[in-house]
Design goal:
Elements: H1 2-14, H2 23-43, H3 47-56, H4 59-63, H5 71-85, H6 90-101, H7 114-129, H8 131-141, H9 146-163, H10 166-183
Helix pairs in contact: 1-3, 2-3, 2-7, 3-6, 3-7, 5-6, 6-7, 7-9, 7-10, 8-9, 9-10
Length: about 180
């Protein structure tokens, strides 16, 4: 099933309608999935659920740019539809949906499960360790000026840092400090 999900999401990332470009697959979504698998034991999370949630966490905004601002709301709906078609058990679907709904740092949502906490940390870690994808969004995608783009990336990194579990902060400290130094 994970292979099917990877194919669905990668195809959406490769589509001409994806305004974020294929790089969201190579520089963000796959990195979040890698981090989620690696962090699952730390959080006592189900590795299959966190990998599925990681692959689908930004799917709504990839599929339709108009859903970007509220992709944490639309993402669980999209994930539920995909997972239902693939015959996924309902308890897995609900766990994935909650993790996606709770993954954003800019939205105050209670992370009620180990999987939700794991995904939120994996997403934040991917932002911190792959700052080039944020720079691409700020400058290439949104056409921001130097100062405005740097301020947006700094704010995104600070939000990501703020949602990290203290154990994950130790992993992220060096790349986080390096990114802030470059953006200063």
């Amino acid at each position: 099933m994970i292979g099917d999900i990877r194919t669905i999401v990668e195809r959406a990332c490769a589509a001409e309608t994806n305004v974020f470009g294929y790089g969201i697959w190579t520089h963000h979504i796959t990195k979040v999935a890698e981090h989620a698998r690696r962090l699952a034991p730390l959080f006592g999370a189900d590795p299959e659920i966190v990998e599925i949630a990681a692959l689908l966490h930004d799917y709504a905004s990839v599929k339709d740019e108009a859903l970007y601002e509220d992709h944490h709301v639309h993402g669980p709906i999209e994930a539920g539809a995909i997972l239902t078609k693939l015959g996924c058990p309902e308890d897995t679907i609900e766990a994935v949906r909650h993790a996606i709904a709770a993954h954003r740092a800019s939205v105050d949502v209670e992370r009620r499960s180990a999987e939700a906490r794991c995904l939120a940390n994996a997403d934040a870690l991917a932002h911190i360790e792959n700052v080039t994808s944020l720079l691409h969004l700020a400058y290439a995608r949104w056409g921001r000026g130097i100062d405005e783009g740097a301020a947006w990336v700094c704010a995104k990194l600070e939000r990501s840092w703020g949602k990290l579990d203290p154990r994950v902060r130790e992993i992220a400290r060096e790349p986080y400090e390096a990114a802030l130094m470059v953006l200063d």
